[in-house]
Amino acid sequence: MRLKAAPVSRRLRFVPHLVIMLIVLRSCVSQQVFAVEAGESSQPNIVFILADDLSWSDLRCYGNSIHDTPNLDRLAHEGIRFTQAYAPAPICSASRAAILTGKTPARLNFEFVTKNEPGGQTFDVPLQSPPFTLDLPLAEVTLGEALARGGYHTGFFGKWHLNRHYRGYLGWSPTHSPLQQGFVEGHSDFGSHPYAYRSDKALRTQPVADGEYPNDTLIDRAVDFIGRQRDERFFLYLSQYFVHDPVHSRCEWLIRKYRDRLPADTPEIRASYGAMVETLDHLVGRVLTTLDEAGLAENTLVVLMSDNGGHPNYTTNAPLRGSKWNLYEGGIRVPLLARWPGRAPAGSECRTAVHGCDLLPTFCEVSNSELPTGERDGVSLLPLLKDPMAKLERTQPLVWHFPYYHPERKFETSPKEIGVGDFVTGQTRPHSAIRSGDWKLLCFYEDDHVELYNLQIDLAEQHNVAASQPEIARRLKQSLSGYLTSVSARLPVAIGN
User: Fold this and answer.
1) Is the model's pLDDT at 307 over the cut of 70?
2) Using only C-alpha atoms, what is the Rg of the chain?
3) Largest interatomic CA distance in the chain
4) Which of 282, 236, 274, 270 is nearest to 254 (CA)?
């Protein structure tokens, strides 16, 4: 039995609908193609590289005239260089906990470095600092958990430093490591950092050939992770050990280069430090090359920053005052570079004050992942990634809180003053700080005195104007105290209380 064809008049009635459907389909496809060509993918891969103790002034793209950092400079050339970026703390564990959670150390009650055992500082000093925090609580939602819930394959490679040391210094805990906090895979491999000498002492005396770098198994793991994620969105958190001490390099050719560039009376270790900075740059270059070769660079947001200011024994933070361990600019202002082809304008500079707590909301918005519930201290930097001149609205003040003493050894014999580029580790006493616009106030707990600086005209924090600007000092101190009270921050107390 043959079916009769529909009358021509009935068939023609479907033609306009078909044409409309084809036009709509073509429009949708065109919009998708345009979005891809313009780098408008809504969910890029994310690579976050955290350097350890890298100074704001260690990089050529931040004005250093000694160190060669071509790969880090490439990130600046192809992306955005933030000139007023801050670590959440002047010390490792506290800063890393804040970056992972979007909460300041004051809110987290995690203000110092982890230890092997519970306890506190036992110095002969006027105040008792809070007891040590040993582990980042599992109840805290981390970057890894937030992005995993958003559909990202997550990996953490390198320095965690957020649990009590397990089976050796910086060992990952079986209960509180990245693998229990949202990261699907990862490893604590020391790579080519001198920490690796602990398990293979012979490495220290094995220089590499001129023009070469030591094999770095940590980077091997990281680039392998990238290579396996070609068809899946991924978040790589690469937490470097460089350039943290012990300062040593097996690249004698680099040491010779920096020895020749430094003044004749410069301690030898600073040439080795220069070699470590350039080695870090080389390792970052391997990651960038892997993204290029895998065809992933165009749809990957790469962010690099340091966890705190530089170590004063090996590098200068000048023109900034202070260093790692204190809340002057040298201790908390850090390099921050962001590259996102097609979205972040290449070769641009952002002068807006931002800090590490901003990364969690930024990565959540960029990845279309749900922001964890509860109070946090950061804001998304996506407006600045699109337009470095955009205005950023904050709901929480920029606050830093360090209720501890440092150095932990020979505190009494250390210099009392905190200088500028003096290569000296001075006494750090319990203090907090707040920044509002160009004004920055530091409050010291031993005698409740304050220091007020206008960073626009006094970047080196040399002229305390608290006495001549009492109303500004009063307002900022009140704001600082209000914030610390609102988050139940732990304060140092008089010994005996």
Assistant:
1) yes
2) 25
3) 107
4) 274
Domains of the chain as residue ranges with CATH: 45-396 (3.40.720.10), 400-494 (3.30.1120.10)
- For residue 294, give both structure tokens: 């895998």
- Quick one: tokens of 219? 């980077």
At residue 94, what is the residue type?
A
Per the structure block, which two tokens stand in for 7? 């009358």
Calculate the average pLDDT of the chain.
92
Positive or negative torsion for Cα 459, 462, 465, 466? positive
- 8: pLDDT strictly greater than 70: no
Q: What are the CA-CA distances from residue 170 to residues 134, 158, 161 (Å)? A: 12, 10, 6
Distance of alpha carbon 171 from alpha carbon 348, whole angstroms: 39
- Alpha-carbon distance 327 to 431, whole Å? 8
Give the HSE-up count for residue 119: Cα atoms under 13 Å, Cβ half-sphere.
8
Alpha helices in 243-402 (DSSP H): 252-261, 268-293, 329-332, 359-367, 382-386
Long-range interactions of 251-254: CB distance < 8 A, separation 24+? 251/207, 251/208, 251/212, 251/213, 251/214, 251/275, 251/278, 251/279, 252/207, 252/210, 253/210, 253/211, 254/278, 254/279
The continuous run of DSSP H or E covering 356 comes out as none
Q: How far apart are CA 108 and CA 162, in angstroms?
A: 12
Distance CA 485, CA 432 (A): 13
